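Per reviewer request, we include the raw input and output of the structure prediction for the construct analysed in the revised manuscript.
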Amino acid sequence: MLERNNKLIWLMLTHIFIICLSNTLVQYPFTLMGFHTTFGAFTYPLIFILTDLTTRLLGQEQARKIVLMAMVPGLFCSFFIANFYNQGELLVYNSVVLRIAFASFFAYVLGQLLDISIFQKLRQSSKWWIAPSVATIFGNLLDTYSFFFIAFYQGNNAFLSAHWLEIATVDLAFKIIISLLSFVPIYGLILKLILDNKDGLVSDIR
């Protein structure tokens, strides 16, 4: 029981770290081939692969528990990070910053719960990559559009308010491409290493 609780805590902390890192990098938009996106597109997909591994190895209930454990600390971290980048301070009230923090909160919860649900339905597929690929695509889709809509639609930032749909779409495209080309194969490699290690332990016990 203690070992499992320690795993859940470490997984929760990893979720919070990825949220903080991605919320920092999303503050830096850039243009690639004429399209607007942010550097957060390169880090946030990791959280979906982590959730899929958790669902595969610990079950959907434990995966949901980690999301619920991480969502409130993630909300506060998002608020502090957005405050720092917008006003240079951590504890100043700003309605725009609060909106971004709540956008991150709702997008994270909605995207992760959808990812877990889809992965659970597809986990018995004959091909190992189907469940994480499909779950990551739809989880990222809901997460990305939810975040940019809640955070920037008709907001005070003229650029993001005008281009949020374009940025979200390009951001989503990058997330899906990065996930399918790198993070899903990494998921497969880590899963194989963990399962092989388990098989080895079982053999040693026998």
